[in-house]
DNA sequence: CAAGCAAGCATGTTCGAAAATCCAGCCGCT
DNA sequence: AGCGGCTGGATTTTCGAACATGCTTGCTTG
């Protein structure tokens, strides 16, 4: 069951093949199409993405420092493993990054930030109002909207580095959420929480927005951890 | 003036050509052989490192998410720019990472950590006892020892993610230090500070070690910033 | 003379053939 | 049976030729 048919229409605006492959490959790792720990063989990747070996290597090399794939010499690339320990580790840092970023974002955000946030929230809310069944069918749409919403919240944070690191940890958190979701039913919508965070942000209550966001993220992590045994690989012993 | 002669003897133990090129290229960017903002042309890189284009692209793709190089489509790779603003940004986060990491490291470190630290400090101290002239000649040796010393300090920190992010910001801090050093005389040795930090760590005074380390790093950043106009590119206007 | 265009060159990007490496299974030996 | 070495096939790694793109220069035209 290949993740996607071969030369997927350029729905993204990637100019370079390597960038296009990169985003597709990353998406397929984050949503669990490639299981944690799975080997990534070039023959298969070539078939799936229709790119040459060199191009694939370039994309995989990009994912290496992000911690999404691992490489051991002459044995090729593997999807990075997951563990409850790693989840707690990355989650703690991620919550902190998000909290700090949103506080600064609320304090520095101007009109453009407000508009962007309102728009992103609106798009997310439209999907989250649907029934569970509909949400399930349009999950990739929800995923993009959710991602955009969280990015919009922190978009006005002036620290480029904080945003960069937040983006890194966000990816990993997303992978944990999505991988765990494959092994349990879709949870209830977090619509109310998203709305509360957005409201606090627009009301310029920076500290409150930070607390709400942190709580939202912590709860998500706890939910994933609660279901962890169902999808976590057993310890190597 | 090429950074180094062509097929440098394999002084590191990199099994893969791409990994070897990666570490050399990274080193040459960090120490300013390739100036911030400079274009990285494949013809030149091929001549310098004796590797094929594909291999070079792989190494550059690795440096992309680390923020050391940038890519714009069909225009190739450039060394990432520097600025006083970026330095403050990355420095603030770096100081915090180091401080938290050393506190945890001191609390969790066992015998192996202690030995490693003692050894790393000893190696660094040997070089820092030399005269300024000698230190200048053996700067690459000092660089490695300094790097190892700081790594040894935080090595026992149990958070893999904290260590990973610390390593990322460390690289950028090192680049700022080295690039600025090319435009001003070598500063005085930080020997006493390093010794104080090591002593506090070995005495298991976690908080003290954290404070000393943070102060050490902040002072370094301030020194660099004080000399910033001499090496920072003027604002694009 | 300025604006627009086109040709030519410099450079970036992609791809898969060829070499290197690893690994599983087989064989012979103790 | 257990161990060590060997071989063939599977896989990874490297490389640069071939193609694509962007930039400069110099010509043409209004």
Characterize the structure shown:
The structure is a homodimer of 237-residue chains. Chain A is mainly α. Chain A folds into two domains: 17-79, Orthogonal Bundle (Arc Repressor Mutant, subunit A); 84-231, GntR ligand-binding domain-like (Four Helix Bundle (Hemerythrin (Met), subunit A)), CATH 1.20.120.530. The first copy, chain A, is 68% helix and 4% strand. The first copy, chain A, contains eleven helices and three strands. Chain A has helices at 17-30, 42-49, 53-66, 84-108, 111-128, 132-137, 139-154, 160-181, 191-202, 206-226, 228-231; strands at 39-40, 69-72, 76-79. In chain A, strands 1-3-2 form a three-stranded antiparallel sheet. The first copy, chain A, starts with 16 loop residues before the first helix and ends in a 6-residue tail after the last helix. Mean pLDDT of chain A is 92; it is low at 1-11. Chain A binds chain B through residues 15-16, 18-19, 54, 57-59, 61-62, 64-67, 73-74, 86, 89-90, 92-93, 159-162, 164-165, 168-169, and chain B through 15-16, 18-19, 54, 57-59, 61-62, 64-67, 73-74, 86, 89-90, 92-93, 159-162, 164-165, 168-169. Chain A binds a DNA duplex (30 and 30 nucleotides) through helix 2 and helix 3. Chains A, B: Keywords: DNA-binding, Transcription, Transcription regulation. Chains A, B: Residues 15-82 form the HTH gntR-type domain. Chains A, B: It holds the Pfam family GntR.
């Amino acid at each position: 069951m290949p993740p996607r048919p071969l030369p997927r229409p350029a729905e993204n605006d990637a100019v370079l093949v390597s960038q296009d492959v990169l985003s597709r490959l990353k998406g397929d790792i984050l949503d669990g199409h490639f299981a944690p720990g799975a080997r990534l063989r070039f023959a298969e990747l070539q078939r799936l993405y229709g790119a040459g070996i060199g191009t694939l290597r370039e994309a995989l090399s990009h994912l290496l420092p992000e911690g999404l794939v691992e490489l051991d010499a002459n044995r090729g690339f593997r999807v990075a493993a997951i563990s409850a320990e790693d989840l707690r580790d990355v989650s703690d840092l991620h919550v902190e990054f998000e909290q700090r970023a949103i506080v600064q974002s609320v304090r520095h955000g101007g009109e453009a930030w407000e508009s962007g946030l309102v728009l992103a929230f609106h798009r997310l809310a439209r999907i989250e109002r649907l029934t569970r069944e509909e949400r399930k069918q349009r999950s990739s749409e929800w995923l993009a909207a959710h991602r955009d919403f969280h990015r919009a919240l922190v978009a006005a944070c002036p620290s480029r580095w904080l945003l960069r690191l937040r983006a890194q940890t966000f990816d990993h958190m997303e992978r944990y959420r999505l991988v765990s979701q494959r092994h349990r039913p879709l949870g209830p919508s977090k619509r109310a929480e998203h709305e509360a965070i957005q409201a606090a942000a627009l009301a310029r209550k920076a500290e409150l927005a930070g607390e709400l966001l942190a709580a939202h993220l912590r709860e998500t992590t706890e939910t994933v951890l609660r279901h962890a045994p169902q999808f976590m690989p057993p310890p190597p012993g």
